[in-house]
Design brief:
mainly beta, globular, single chain
Length: about 180
């Protein structure tokens, strides 16, 4: 009886230690996500974009390699670029953020593209979005859905391209 109690206590201690030391669970957050929002679209439009401020809280460069959300069939990291005088959207394989820096995902610049919406997004509703780092850690945020008429001038892209950090990609004009 004593042996079984000791065995159970030992297994419980080892299990707790494994859970606590698993990457992405028991360490200080590497990134902070602020001001997350999604552009509300009419029900007939099946794609939209999410925007946010992402700060690298760690002492090393981090790389965002993917984004996820259950409200879309596909979720991609994107940027806007000017090619021959025309603004075009381009998918990015990753976005790097240096220690202590903030990258602004904003209209006219970097954004998370939600492609093939699986449900109608209600103004003032929320969308769960996860950013996936190269090390496999996932950081979750709840983005509010903003109606296009409720967006202020900054939300509509008046501060395009203002970000610190870099994005990597094979498209023309990548940093």
């Amino acid at each position: 009886m004593i042996k079984s109690r000791v065995c159970v206590a030992f297994i419980a201690a080892i299990t707790t230690m494994l859970i606590v030391t698993r990457p992405g669970v028991a360490h200080d957050p590497e990134i902070r996500i602020d001001n997350a929002w999604v552009k509300g679209m009419p029900p007939s439009v099946m794609n939209t974009a999410a925007y946010m401020d992402v700060t690298n809280m760690s002492e090393r460069m981090i790389t965002i390699v993917a984004a996820e959300s259950s409200v879309a069939e596909h979720v991609e990291l994107h940027t806007m670029e000017t090619v021959d005088g025309v603004m075009r959207m381009a998918q990015l394989p990753s976005i790097e953020i240096n220690p202590g820096e903030t990258v602004l995902f904003e209209p006219g610049g970097l954004h998370v593209m939600l492609i093939g919406l699986t449900r109608e997004l209600q103004t003032d509703g929320h969308v769960n979005i996860s950013l996936v780092l190269a090390n496999g850690d996932r950081y979750h945020t709840r983005a509010i859905v903003k109606h296009p008429m409720d967006m202020d001038a900054d939300d509509k892209g008046s501060h395009k391209g203002s970000h610190k950090g870099s994005h990597k990609g094979s498209h023309k004009g990548s940093h």
